[in-house]
Amino acid sequence: QVQLAESGGASVQPGGSLRLSCAASGFTFSIYWMYWFRQAPGKGLEWISTINHVGDQTYYADSVKGRFTISRDNAETTVYLQMNSLKPEDTAVYLCYLDREYTEYWGQGTQVTVSS
User: Which of 32, 37, 61, 79 has the greatest number of beta carbons closer than 10 A?
Assistant: First the structure.
């Protein structure tokens, strides 16, 4: 059974940093691309970042490029999102996503609040 469990969300001040984790289980993690999305209050889902299966190709939304870094540890079956220079507009629930054979899987999300 596929499980994605995000953690690491918190309340931080503008300019702060956080590292989110998504622990994956129930599938062969090392062969799948992984994704981070976020959903701000009252808004739709926004794609944030993608990493390929070996971790040498990464992609970012313009809104986070240069501030966020996606990475993965295939031995630990975990994908990370390092978030620096956080802004109030980064406030959202952050979710981990997997597309496996055209079936979508989402974690429960982790809340990030950026406020002074």
Answer: 79
